[in-house]
Amino acid sequence: MYSTLGTTYSAFQTTNTQFTHFNRVEEFTAKAKTAFRVIQAHQNCELWHQRKMYLKSNLSWNVLIPAESLDAGGLMLQKAIITRLMADFAAKKATKDLGYFLALSTVGKIGEGKVRKQSGDVIFPVDFSCITFKVLPGEILEGVVHKILKPGVFLRCGPVETIFLSHQKMDDYQFVPGENPYFMNGKSSKIEKGVVLRFLVIGEKFIEIEKDFRVVGSLEGDYLGPVS
């Protein structure tokens, strides 16, 4: 199916490009820019190196460059390959093993291209490193309450949109119904929409068809609950 492309593309086999400021790359998607700003904010936090949910992974993907883009040479072709890699990365939501894809870190070797005989498109193997977000049972995280129901509350934490805290795992909090329902305990600590909660992760499940995680948390433990 493939044939080896000639030396035209061999000059790009040892490319080593650093990406430390994605906001300068016009072609990068808004989603990836936002993710990188989140990471930069966390890097300023002293807990950054203690948080296991941020993983740095070394990967190798095949990047397809359409035949019509192959007239470009030198740095223009290199830019086309990297731009396509960033677009593919931004479209990749999550995997079971690595978690959510947040941002590219560095681009390393760009291998020799192979031509698809029927279309003329070229596949380049590209090595790169990236940062992902993986929630692990036993970790303590902080999330924002976005839905309150009698059975419990739903939180968001970073890219994780579905974190459920059952009322059975909320210590002595009691549900208070109304137009804007909330939970309150005997110490008048209130859990309502928009509140930041520190919680313990007790379970997670990857939904393959949605490429998304479902997380279950608990407030049972020391220093857990609303963050003042």
If helices are DSSP runs of H or I spanning 4 or more residues, what is the number of helices?
Answer: 2
Number of domains: 2
**What is the N-to-C order of secondary-structure elements (H for helix, E for strand)?**
EEHEHEEEEEEEEEEEEE
Q: Mind summarizing the main beta sheet? A: 7 strands, antiparallel
**CATH topology assignment of the largest domain:** Dna Ligase, domain 1
- CATH class of the largest domain reads Alpha Beta
Provide a quick synopsis of the model.
The chain has 228 residues and is mostly beta strands. The chain has 2 domains: 2-133, RNA polymerase Rpb7-like, N-terminal domain (Dna Ligase, domain 1, 2-Layer Sandwich), CATH 3.30.1490; 140-226, Nucleic acid-binding proteins (OB fold (Dihydrolipoamide Acetyltransferase, E2P), Beta Barrel), CATH 2.40.50.140.
How does this model look, in words?
This is DNA-directed RNA polymerase subunit. This protein has 228 residues and is mainly beta. The chain has two domains: 2-133, RNA polymerase Rpb7-like, N-terminal domain (Dna Ligase, domain 1); 140-226, OB fold (Dihydrolipoamide Acetyltransferase, E2P). It is built from two helices and 16 strands. A hairpin with a 2-residue loop joins strand 8 and strand 9. The longest helix is centred in the middle third of the chain and has 17 residues, at 75-91. The protein starts with a strand and ends with a strand.
Write the layout of secondary structure elements.
Layout: E1 2-4, E2 17-18, H1 30-43, E3 54-65, H2 75-91, E4 94-95, E5 99-110, E6 114-116, E7 122-133, E8 140-149, E9 152-157, E10 160-166, E11 174-176, E12 182-184, E13 190-191, E14 196-207, E15 212-218, E16 225-226
Parallel strand pairs: 10-15
Antiparallel strand pairs: 1-6, 2-5, 3-7, 4-5, 5-7, 6-7, 8-9, 8-14, 9-10, 11-12, 12-13, 14-15, 14-16
